[in-house]
Amino acid sequence: MARPVNAAQYQRHSLQLISRVLNIRSGASPFTLILDDLNQRAMPLIGELVRRALSRNVNVVAVSFEATRFHPAVCSVPAYGEETGERILQRIRAALSDAKESLVVVDSLYELINVKNVDMGALFHLVAGEFASTLVGVYHQDTIPDQGAHKAYAPQPLDVFKYMATTVITCKSFAHVLAAKAARERSLPEPTHGLLQGAEGIVQCLDANDRRGIVIEAEFRRKSGRPESETYFLRAARQSDYNAPSTGTAFGTLRQEFVILLDQVPAYRSSETTRLSNATANDMESTFNLGLTDKQKQAREEVILPYFDAQKGEGAGEGGRILYDMGEEDDFDEEEDEI
User: Fold this and answer.
1) Is the pTM of this model over 0.90?
2) Which of 134, 184, 269, 332 is the most exposed place for a label (fewest CB within 10 A)?
């Protein structure tokens, strides 16, 4: 596809990329990796993926370690408890066997790989290769990786997931993104949140999981290897966003795309971002008068600067001669001067 030549074409191109991923279009992204943490969980995004898949009659299979309640149209594969990795793969295969197109969602990739010892390559080959379906996995970035001796030379799970993923989506709280933008506008360091603060006992910050919507930073990897990155804003879905469900469908089809670029959000684009993010530092007024009166300007011009005489005519050609008047306390050594 040709590179966009103007802003309007660029916006359409960027929205088309994320829309294909959200709507589970065939071949758009065989493996989508979603990164989240306690400050912004991926559940709003996962819920939107499932809703759009069901609206298109796509078979949805949920491999769950954390969630226990699902829509009746979702095929649940519990992975917690005594379930083994081999048993989980068998249940996924059975859930995919009778469907033409499927979406497999894993709510904790780390536990699937490290606790149940499921081979990531085998899972990807089963879903994307054998059944030509879409795999979506969630990785919690605040999970501490296992540092066992037997895995000292093995790559970290997150590195493996990023290497295999065709789309990587990072979830961020909208309120935290606004706070970071406000700090940049004041030329201040961006605030840190959650575990990155390094404060004892703090794992989740205020304004986490903003209900206004979720900010998603997406990286799309083409077959050529060239990545494309963009940041979007996904608000909560409304009933008016979907048509009425037809017979035999759980949800109606999408009426109009409502994911937008982050730069198009009024609260982010506005110059009042600092006020919206509750940054009280902007309300502080300086107690110093930085202006100068005419009398102060005249006094400043009359100040004689050091070595000013060396810049006059008597100093020309002497390489900036320094004039120094010896005082009574100075000890003049004639022998040293001769050397």
Assistant:
1) no
2) 332
Rounded distance between C-alpha atoms, residue 298 and residue 303, angstroms = 9
Residue 20 contacts by C-beta under 8 Å, 6 or more apart in sequence?
Answer: 28, 29
Question: In angstroms, rounded to a whole number, what is the distance separating the alpha carbons of residues 225 and 191?
Answer: 33
Give the dihedral of Cα atoms 181, 183, 188, 193; nearest 10 deg: -100
Tens of pLDDT along the chain (339 residues) come to 556 667 888 889 999 999 999 999 988 899 999 999 888 999 999 999 999 999 999 999 999 998 888 888 999 999 988 888 899 999 999 999 988 999 999 999 999 998 898 999 999 999 999 999 999 999 998 887 776 655 667 788 889 999 999 999 999 999 888 888 888 888 888 777 666 666 665 666 777 888 899 999 999 998 777 889 999 999 988 888 888 888 777 788 898 899 999 998 988 887 554 454 444 444 444 455 556 777 888 888 887 776 666 566 554 555 556 666 777 667 666 665 554
DSSP 209: S
Tokens at residue 164, please?
């295999």
Other Cβ atoms less than 10 A from the Cβ of 236: the count is 13
Q: DSSP code of 123?
A: H
Structure tokens at 160: 């493996």
Query: Would you list the DSSP string of 239-285?
Result: GGGBPPP-TT-SSPPBSS---EEGGG-HHHHSTTHHHHTT-GGGG--
Residues 6+ away with beta carbon under 8 Å from 186 = 274, 279, 281, 282
DSSP 192: P
CA atoms within 13 A on the CB side of 272: 4
Q: How far apart are CA 262 and CA 39, in angstroms?
A: 18
**44-66 burial string, b = 16+ CB within 10 Å, else e?**
bbbebbbbbbbbebbbbbbbbbe
Q: How big is the chain by its Cα radius of gyration, in Å?
A: 31
